[in-house]
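Homework help board

Subject: predicted structure for assignment chain

Our instructor gave us this sequence and asked us to write out the predicted structure in token form, then describe one feature. I got the tokens but I'm not sure how to describe them. Can anyone check?
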Amino acid sequence: MNDFVNIPKSHFRDLREKTRGDKVIWATVALLALVSMLVVYSSTGLLAYRYNKGNTEIYLFKQLMFIIIGVGIIYFAHQVNYTLYSRWSRILFLLSIPLLIYTLFFGVSLNEGTRWIRLPLINLTFQTSDLAKLALFMYLSRMLSKKQDVIKDFKKGFLPLIIPVAIISLLVAPANLSTALMIGATSLLLMFIGRVSIKHIGLTVGIASIPVAILILLAVVYYDKEEGKTKDLPVLIESGRIPTWIKRVQNFIYDARQGDKEDNYQINQAKIAIAKGGLIGLGPGNSEQRNFLPHPYSDFIYAIIIEEYGLAGGAFIIFVYMIFLFRSIRIFRKCPYAFGAFLALGLSFTLVIQALINMAVNVNLFPVTGVTLPLVSMGGSSFLFTCLAIGIILSVARNVEQLEG
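My token output:
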């Protein structure tokens, strides 16, 4: 009997030894993965009815497989000494540039945007911006650690940092403007913490604000308030995704007065879901808006969380992400080496900012974007790259733990 009891204990000890790093971050991953399984299973009912004869278990098992693979990625990534990521960062960054260019011209097209490429043999698609984003923050962390002696110099310190950010952002922007803006903003935040001159950061923000201001101006000028729709756009700006960006900005600006517009269908359904949720929600699996809300298992999964678990559940999700960020900042402060510190902070910033943007879209505090909720939205390439980023953060944490021990 004692032997039977001791076996599990030894297994748990082995598990603790093998899963080094910040235990709180491991716990946040487990919590978000559990939430993901519950909400994805609940929100895929209509999708299952359309494509799988009502068999919702298919998507539950699919999500479970993604979680198992994702945890495996986290485990193996956290076992790698994080200094190796510094060596790989330049290769991955240089690889991501031709991949993004290829995606723009030959990628899988959806909603007038080409964000994915199809992998041969296995016939799966993945979003190249996910790889580019990860590669950029690894490379930026490397450059920040190497340039600390000349970090205030524009030519020697600032340009080598901002040029890679500009390249990736400009290549991502035509198909995914929100991700490009998120990459740029997170990079500048990391540079600010890395002691880059505020004057240089302010200059960059000023230049980047010009096209954003032009987009907002076009949205206002080419909006017919009486008809409640976009006016005919000039030929020069009627190409690519520019009309989509203009329409989304218009929907956000004029939503209060034109709340019943067909163009605002997504956000209106999300509002209904939030209103139905109230304080404690309708209960797990009892969402009603999942049958009306487009993409309730990905872009608008947070609205389903609030509908089923109420404002209390929504606040809990925010709390979990804040704990994750707080623990990552703790790693940043404790790591004695600049590269590891910047790497943990940069990757955690991009994940938490992405989560906040997704939640802000769901509650109509931000224009509609295609940004998913990290570790919660239904699995895909974004889910796996998120797991890789968390594994790298835990690799830094593991190194800090070993130094302290």
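Reply (TA_rk): Your tokens look well-formed. For the description, you could write something like this. The first strand starts at residue 108 and ends at 110. That's the kind of observation they're looking for.
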